[in-house]
Structures are given as C-alpha cells and as structure tokens.
Design brief:
The complex is a heterodimer of chains A (176) and B (191).
Chain A: H1 2-26, H2 31-39, H3 42-65, H4 68-79, H5 87-95, H6 100-114, H7 119-130, H8 134-144, H9 153-175
Helix pairs in contact in A: 3-8, 4-5, 5-6, 5-7, 6-7, 7-9
Chain B: H1 2-19, H2 22-59, H3 62-77, H4 86-99, H5 103-119, H6 129-140, H7 147-155, H8 165-189
Helix pairs in contact in B: 1-2, 2-5, 3-4, 4-5, 5-6, 6-8
The chains are: A mainly alpha (176), B mainly alpha (191).
C-alpha cells in the first residue's frame, strides 16, 4: 500500500508535466516560450515574499535563542501535566508550527535520546506528520499577494494548531 | 500578525536580558536573516519552475478545463469563486500536491492559488474569506503518507515505521476538519 502510494507520488509530477506540454503543443502553444514567460514572474514573487519571510524568521529564531521558547514549553508542560505528555513530544508540539528544519532536527534528536519505539518518538512522529509549519505558510502565502490586513486568520490558525496537537496526543495514546 | 510579532520580539528580548542569553539572541537575528535568504533562493527556483508550467496551462486553456472538472468539489469549500476561474485549478493542484507529500510543488502552486484568489479580491491588501479557507487547509497539512517522517524513523531502525501512517492520517483528518470548524466559528463571530 505504501510503496504503491510512493510510486504514484514519484510519477505524478513527471506525468503532469508531460501531459501539460503535450496538451499545449496540441493546442498550438509554443511551450518553450510560454514556460520562459511564466518563469519570468518567479523573481518578482520571491521579492514580495522575502521581507515577510525575513521578518517572521528573525522573530522565530530570536524566540528560540532567548530562552522564551523553553519557558513556554515548560509552562505548557506543567499546565497539561494531567495529560501525561512526554516533554520531548511537547517540545515538538511547540516547535513544529514555528520551524520546519528545527522540528526535523528535534525529531531525530528525540529518536536518538529516547529510542525509536518510545512513546515520545511515536507522539512526536504523529505531531510532526499532522502539523504544519504555520508561521512559514502564513509568511509565504500572505507575502505572495502582500496581504496586510489578516483579520482573524492568525487566531484561527493558532487555535487550530492547538487543537491539532491535542488530537495528535490522543490519537497516539489510542494507537500505541 | 502585528500583535503576534510584537509579542514575540519583545518577550524574546526581555527573556534574553533575564536569562543572560543576549549574545545568543543577537546572533539568532542574523541566523534568522540567513535562513530567510537561503529559503528565498530555494523558493526562487521552484516557484519559477511552477510559474513556467502553469503558464503553459494558461496559454493552452487547460487551466479552465481542470477548473471546470473540479469546480463541483472545490466550490463546496470556496463558495464565492465565479465560473471556471483559474484559482480552482491552482487550489486543486495544491491540495493534490499536499496529499501526495509533494512539498516542492505544493508551495509554488499555493502561491499561484493565492495570486489567482487575489485577482478576485476587491479590497487589495485585505484578506478574503476564500484566502483564509485556503490558508487554513494548508496549515492543517492533509497528507496520505508522511514520507519524511517514515524516512527518518526507518533511518533510526524503527521496527515498523509504517505504523505511524494510520494515526497520522486520522490525526490530520480530524485536525483539518476542526480547523475548518474553528474558521467557521470565527467567521460567525466577526461577521
């Protein structure tokens, strides 16, 4: 089943590109010129996104380095002590919305220190797989079209992230 | 975003002062800037590639055909997209890329979707309900098989890395649905 899905995943982009260029040629589109014209838009888009990405990354890195991250995690740990969540999994829960690369590094670290079959590892795996790097997504997608007024989007994302992590904790406990 | 950023920056600096992490904090600002440059360069490549591919879709009219095909499904969540608008295609392709864990395609296609949704935006600079729905779906991360997690687990000798597939799928499905419910609830409150 997994290898099957993996094969489709490998196939999907090449097939899609093949179909696109063949269909374009069939419709008498000069596909090479079209691609170049489209690719020309790339730099302008990235120039739009870059300041947003920079602004949020500076805040995230500073948050981690200042010790505020550890403090928040410990606060969560004592508040949710009754749920019996391993502290490593809780680090993952707080880290994942902030940074993709840092949560991957954290995940390998959790496997190394607690073992690959520990509760902390299983729970971190579920959190890692079911949560998204919210801040990065927000910076990139809002930056791409220069949205300044986000209305209630940010609170929605934070509440949804929080619920997502609670769900991940319960699903893990139910499975393992 | 403004409030969140202000809180993060000021809390960090206060913490840095009290915990004596001032040097690390200052260094981290430049680390953050460096990561932003690296990721932007990476994005520049993949976004340009996908802008090239989607331009062929536009010039050949295929973008409208795909939109027409998926309109019935997409319009359930995105009610205010008129006709066979190209944003439907971009949203569809982004969701498919997410489902199959194709991150390098999902982000550029998501950017494309945001641009197309912005075409429909009458008040530029302010987010539309459709954009919110789209971003919430993306932050909830729907994925059939979490290849990266399985890969890391397998690399460290987990006895059955595939065991995480079902729990992750269930957790993602529940959290995506609750995320949309939370959005709907906020929408009612802030109407």
């Amino acid at each position: 089943m997994i290898s099957y899905v993996e094969y489709i995943s490998l196939l999907i982009i090449p097939l899609f590109i093949l179909f696109t260029v063949l269909y374009g040629t069939f419709k008498k589109v000069r596909v090479y010129d079209s691609f170049v014209a489209g690719a020309k838009e790339g730099p302008a888009i990235i120039l739009n996104i870059f300041p947003y990405l920079l602004t949020i990354f500076v805040a995230i890195k500073g948050f981690q380095a200042s010790g505020a991250f550890d403090y928040i995690r410990d606060a969560f740990y004592s508040v949710f002590a009754f749920l019996d969540i391993p502290i490593e999994a809780l680090s993952m829960a707080v880290m994942k919305p902030l940074s993709g690369s840092a949560s991957t590094a954290l995940f390998t670290d959790i496997i190394k220190t607690t073992g690959s079959d520990s509760m902390a590892t299983q729970m971190s795996a579920v959190i890692m797989g079911s949560a998204e790097t919210t801040f990065y997504v927000l910076a990139v997608y809002l930056g791409a079209v220069s949205i300044r007024k986000t209305r209630y989007l940010v609170p929605v994302c934070l509440v949804a992230d929080f619920i997502g992590i609670v769900v991940a904790v319960f699903v893990t406990k139910w499975f393992f | 975003m403004n409030v969140l950023w202000l809180i993060m920056i000021s809390v960090s600096i206060v913490f840095a002062i009290f915990t004596g992490n001032l040097e690390a904090f200052t260094k981290s600002i430049f680390d953050g800037a460096k990561s932003a440059v690296e990721i932007s360069l990476f994005l520049l490549g993949i976004v340009s590639v996908w802008m090239g591919i989607t331009r062929i879709l536009e010039d050949s009219g295929l973008i409208y055909r795909i939109a027409h095909l998926f309109k019935p499904i997409i319009s359930r969540l995105f009610k205010n997209i008129p006709g066979d608008h190209p944003s439907i295609t971009a949203i569809t392709l982004n969701v498919l890329a997410n489902l199959f864990g194709l991150g390098n395609a999902a982000t550029p296609l998501g950017i494309k979707a945001m641009q197309e949704l912005d075409v429909l935006n009458e008040d530029k600079g302010t987010i539309t309900p459709e954009m919110m729905t789209f971003i919430v779906i993306n932050t909830a991360s729907i994925q059939l098989i979490p290849f990266s997690v399985i890969g890391i687990l397998a690399g460290y000798g987990h006895r059955n890395p595939a065991a995480v597939v079902l729990p992750i799928l269930i957790a993602t499905a529940i959290s995506t649905m609750t995320a949309l419910l939370v959005l709907a609830a906020f929408r009612k409150i802030f109407k």
